[in-house]
Amino acid sequence: MNDVDVLVAGGGPVGLAAAIEARLAGLTVALVEPREGPIDKACGEGLMPGALPLLQRLGVDPAGMPLRGVSYRNASKRADHRFETGVGRGVRRTVLQSELADRASELGVRFVDGRVDGIEQDATGVSAAGVRASWLLACDGLHSGVRRTLGLDRPVRRGRRFGIRQHFEVAPWNDLIEVYWAEDAEVYVTPIAHDTVGIAMLGAQHADFDAVVRSIPELATALADAAPASTRRGAGPFRQRAARVRLGRVLLVGDASGYVDAITGEGLRLGIDQARVAVASLLGGAGYEREWRRVTRDFRVLTSGLVAAARSPLRGGIVPLAARLPRVYGAVVERLAR
């Protein structure tokens, strides 16, 4: 006899979204997480327009700042595109997680303080963290312990990029996500409150956050008198691969299923969408592997191409090309924003 229908590993936004999705489908759910929430981690905190309807259908509508497009910039050029498909939102990760946790509690999700390390499964269920369930959704992030325990990690030897994020007390000066293309890193500026912006830097492991920010005159000026509003946090390496996204009764969801890079800033939207199709597959819908490939296809193709260009001699031409071909640039942004 199983204790619950679904066991979710990981209490971040994607794990909570998966738990809520399962409860809305009428399934009983236990969620395992060893850390007290809300859990703060390095991320861009920009929700693309396509993410908001996914959250709203879960009953969550977090407060934040409107994001109306994306601006690519370097020392001499800029390319702005305003979303045609809606408005995104800059939301502090801890705010989003708190609202998702409240919604999960309201729907009767059972929270378990523990870790999913030893996993046993058979034809009728899977056991982990002292709970037996019909299914396990592994939503435990970039460095998924479930993925590792099941032997599904695939080595990544090239393209190891990392991120650093910090918030600053300053009024947002734009309603676009600004992406500054420095020589060896990208810096993302996301407004998340009326008096706070988030600064996220993506680059090589030992890239100097302060030096990169100082090298961008607009940012150096905007942040000159701004006090830090959070501790600095890092993430990575981003490139992660899984041999497969399902093994028996275990489904890998979100970053746990593999990740290319944060360069397109749609990790949360992607993870929430994966949670949706994972639960649908448990209810007899289309196979998870096929649906996972479908909902992640644009992300994998476009992000891989952009990262390859960013790490090549073509890097310096990315912003000038976007400025010269605004329709092409806009089409790419819209494809990722939907």
Structure characterization notes:
With 338 residues, the protein is of the alpha+beta class. It has a domain of 181 residues: FAD/NAD(P)-binding domain (3-Layer(bba) Sandwich). The chain has 10 helices and 21 strands. Strands 1, 2, 8, 9, 10, 11, 20 and 21 form an 8-stranded mixed sheet that branches. Strands 5, 6, 13, 14, 15, 16, 17 and 18 form an 8-stranded mixed sheet that branches. The model has no long low-confidence stretch (mean pLDDT 92).
Task: Considering the chains and any ligands shown, give keywords for the structure.
8-stranded mixed beta sheet, 32% helix, 338 residues, FAD/NAD(P)-binding domain, 26% strand, alpha+beta
Give the secondary structure arrangement, pairings included.
Layout (H helix, E strand, L loop, with lengths): L3 E6 L3 H12 L4 E4 L13 E2 L3 H7 L7 E3 L1 E5 L4 E5 L5 E3 L2 H14 L3 E3 L7 E2 L4 E3 L2 E8 L6 H5 L3 E2 L7 E8 L6 E6 L3 E9 L2 E8 L5 H6 L2 H6 L4 E2 L4 E3 L5 E2 L3 E2 L2 E3 L14 H16 L5 H23 L7 H7 L1 H12 L1
Parallel strand pairs: 1-2, 1-11, 2-8, 5-14, 11-21
Antiparallel strand pairs: 3-7, 4-7, 5-6, 9-10, 10-11, 12-19, 13-16, 13-17, 13-18, 14-15, 15-16, 20-21
Helix pairs in contact: 1-3, 1-7, 2-7, 7-8, 9-10
What's this, in brief?
The chain has 338 residues and is α+β, with helices and mostly antiparallel strands. Helix content is 32%, strand content 26%. The chain is built from 10 helices and 21 strands.
